[in-house]
Design brief:
- About 50% of the residues lie in helices and about 10% in strands.
- By secondary structure, the chain is of the alpha+beta class.
- It folds into two domains: about 210 residues, Orthogonal Bundle (Arc Repressor Mutant, subunit A), CATH 1.10.10.10; about 60 residues, Alpha-Beta Plaits.
- It has a four-stranded antiparallel beta sheet with strand order 5-6-4-7. Strands 1-3-2 form a three-stranded antiparallel beta sheet.
Length: about 325
């Protein structure tokens, strides 16, 4: 028996899509990370078009989006007769996984008081290498402390190594750990945060996310079950908007952030709503994907580790 759709949830969804319509290419990326990857990492174009229809995205925009993502190296295309199937490119799959891991993992690890400094001072860098390194490090949350000097108080060493190898400069960059001197009275290192990172815009984006989704827990708790298609639409919009904000968050330790940092509240709200919708949403996803492939797998085990552990069905 199908679960009846909630008029209140429909009004909320219609309003959100009207005032902030998701861009086709961006929401395709959201779907591949949140939905397609756990179900085998590939999807037929027809199913993708069907999944995106509730967001006002027509088939022409879907085709254009996946074509561009394939051109950019994110997706590979396969043809079988008149049908096209898209899957994550092996070379980009790891970067994709790392990016989405930031979304589902509690972002504020315990800080040991150590900073990672990266000195890209070699004169042998090409302009392209220097630009690519800067782009990768800033995206990963590093701050530009001085020309060719980057720093982060909570960097992941494995991620830094991957970046240096991908850019091809691992033998020309100095990386070291730094701690604040106890023997010399100087300006505290924590003051670098206000100088090197734009926290105000990230904080404002988190506030907007909270304002946008704050009403949902009450709407969802008013119903014992949520219609699968509505649950899918909520979960997709939720992760789409949280991804847009969170991937600009520099992942600094809470000790260095302003008091009452909204990122923690936003993560907890996102986790709460995701837990309330993921099962029904997965029902809708599987129903759509099986229209063209009965062998679509259930969600991979790692899916249930999101947000500290979902309840497995």
């Amino acid at each position: 028996m199908l679960t009846a759709k909630s008029p209140a949830i429909k009004r909320w969804l219609d309003h959100q899509i009207e005032v902030n319509p998701p861009r086709a290419k961006s929401v395709v990326m959201t779907l591949f990370g949140d939905v397609i990857a756990p179900h085998g990492g590939q999807v037929w174009l027809g199913c993708l078009i069907e999944l995106l229809a509730p967001f006002g995205i027509n088939d022409r925009l879907v085709r254009t989006s996946v074509f561009r993502l394939a051109e950019e190296g994110w997706l590979d295309a396969q043809r079988e007769g008149r049908r096209s199937r898209y899957l994550l490119n092996p070379s980009s799959a790891h970067r994709f996984e790392r990016a989405y891991q930031r979304i589902y993992t509690p972002p504020y690890r315990q800080w040991k008081g150590t900073w990672t400094l990266l000195l890209a001072t070699s004169s042998t860098f090409t302009a392209e290498e220097r630009a690519n390194l800067r782009k990768e490090l800033l995206w990963e949350g590093f701050g530009l402390i001085a020309p060719s000097v980057f720093g982060h108080p909570n960097a992941n060493s494995q991620t830094v190594e991957e970046i240096l190898k991908r850019v091809g400069v691992e033998d020309r960059v100095f990386v070291c750990d730094a701690v604040e001197s106890k023997s010399i009275s100087t300006r505290p290192l924590r003051d670098l945060v206000s100088q090197c990172w734009d926290l105000e815009s990230v904080s404002a984006d988190y506030d907007r996310f909270i304002q946008c989704f704050a009403a949902l827990p009450k709407l969802l708790s008013a119903r014992k079950t949520v219609a699968p298609e509505q649950a899918f639409a909520i979960r997709t919009l939720l992760i789409h908007e949280f991804r847009r904000v969170q991937l600009h968050d520099q992942q600094l330790p809470l000790e260095l952030l302003p008091e009452n940092w909204p990122g923690k509240t936003a993560y907890e709200l996102c986790s709460q709503i995701y837990r309330s919708t993921y099962e029904a949403a997965d029902q809708h996803v599987l129903n759509v994907l099986k229209h063209e492939d009965d062998a679509v797998p259930e969600s991979a085990p790692y899916f249930y580790q999101r947000f500290g552990g979902l309840v497995s069905p």
